[in-house]
Specification:
The protein is α/β, with parallel strands linked by helices. The protein has a 9-stranded mixed β-sheet with strand order 1-2-3-5-4-6-7-8-9, with helices on both faces. α10 links the parallel β8 and β9. α2 packs across α3 and α3 packs across α9. It is globular. The two termini are 30 Å apart.
C-alpha cells in the first residue's frame, strides 16, 4: 500500500519487507526511476525531475536506510540495496521502465536492468560503475578520496557520525559550494542514532580496483551483459569526472550497443547540483528520441 507523506508535495511511502521506503513522484505515463548514490538521497534529483516529468511518471526513491526511508536493522550490503529496490519495483508494478542512475545507485540499476531487460525501455547513467576498475583507469579525484577513506577508517567520529561524513566527503564532488539549506537536507537523514550504518557498509564495499570483492564481481557480471544488450543507453560524462574517466567513455563507445554518449562539461561527481539544466535537457531530448522508437 502506498501512502502520502502529509507535509511534502509529491512525497510518498510504500512498504517493502516491513519497512517504509520513501520516494518523490511527479508526472504520468511510463515510469522513470531515479537511483541516487552515497551519501545522497532523492533530493539529489530535485532540479532534474522538472525537465523529465512531462515525459513520464518520475519516481525518485530513497535507498533503504537513506533519505526519508526507514532504517531497519540490516547490514546494508549492496545485495540488501538490490533486494529492496527489486521489491520496490515489483510492489509498484513498474514496467516499460527507464532507469536513471548515479554512483552507487548504478550498481543497483544496472543489475536490475540486465536481469529484467524485458521490463525496461532504457538506461541513463552518469558517474556510474560501468565496468570493473583497473589501476590505470582510476581517476585522481577517486584515488584521493579512497586515500582519505582509508586514512579515516579507524576514526570513530568519521565512521560513526554520518553528518561528519557528509560534511567532509560531499563537497569534494561538487563544482560549487552548496548552500546551508542544501547541506542541511543532505545531513538530516544521518542525524538519528544508527543512521550511519549504510555509510559504514559502503566504506567496506567501495571498489578499490583489486577485482576481488563481491561488489567488483557483481560489476563484472552486469558489465559483460551490457556489452551484449541492445537496450537503449545514454551515458553522460564530465571532465575531469570522478568515477568515469575518459578511458571508460572510450571503452563504452567501443563495446556497448545502442549507446549515445554526451559530455556535459567540467564536473566532478555531482552535475545534478552544478548544472542541472544541461543534464535535464540532455536526458529529456534522449527520452523523446527513444519514445518515438519504442512506441
Amino acid at each position: 500500500m502506498v501512502t502520502t507523506f502529509p507535509n511534502t508535495s509529491h512525497s510518498r511511502f510504500v512498504e517493502v519487507f516491513g519497512s517504509k521506503m520513501h520516494f518523490i513522484e511527479d508526472g504520468s505515463g511510463d515510469p522513470i526511476l531515479f537511483l541516487h548514490g552515497i551519501p545522497t538521497s532523492s533530493y539529489l534529483w530535485r532540479n532534474i525531475i522538472p525537465y523529465i516529468a512531462p515525459l513520464g511518471r518520475c519516481i525518485a526513491v530513497d535507498l533503504i536506510g537513506m533519505g526519508k526511508s526507514d532504517k531497519p536493522n540490516i547490514d546494508y550490503t549492496i545485495e540488501d540495496h538490490i533486494k529492496y529496490i527489486d521489491k520496490f519495483i515489483e510492489t509498484l508494478k513498474l514496467k516499460r521502465l527507464t532507469i536513471i542512475m548515479h554512483g552507487w545507485g548504478s550498481i543497483i540499476g544496472f543489475n536490475y536492468a540486465m536481469n529484467h531487460e524485458a521490463k525496461c525501455k532504457g538506461v541513463v547513467f552518469y558517474e556510474a560503475y560501468l565496468r570493473p576498475f583497473n589501476e590505470a583507469d582510476i581517476s585522481l579525484p577517486y584515488q584521493e578520496q579512497v586515500t582519505l577513506l582509508q586514512a579515516e577508517e579507524h576514526n570513530a567520529e568519521f565512521v560513526m557520525n554520518g553528518t561528519h561524513y557528509v560534511d567532509k566527503i560531499l563537497p569534494q564532488g561538487m563544482m560549487r559550494p552548496l548552500t546551508d539549506e542544501e547541506m542541511s537536507h543532505y545531513r538530516e537523514p544521518f542525524m538519528q542514532k544508527g543512521a550511519e550504518r549504510p555509510l559504514r557498509q559502503y566504506l567496506q564495499e567501495i571498489p578499490y580496483g583489486t577485482g576481488k570483492s563481491s561488489v567488483e564481481k557483481l560489476i563484472t557480471d552486469y558489465s559483460q551483459k551490457l556489452t551484449k544488450s541492445t537496450l537503449p543507453k545514454l551515458m553522460l560524462y564530465s571532465l575531469p569526472g570522478f568515477i568515469t574517466t575518459m578511458a571508460t567513455a572510450i571503452w563504452a563507445k567501443e563495446h556497448l550497443p545502442n549507446l549515445e554518449i554526451v559530455e556535459i562539461g567540467e564536473e566532478l561527481h555531482f552535475a545534478q547540483e552544478s548544472n542541472p539544466s544541461l543534464m535535464g535537457e540532455t536526458i529529456s531530448v534522449w527520452l523523446q528520441g527513444i519514445e518515438q522508437i519504442t512506441t
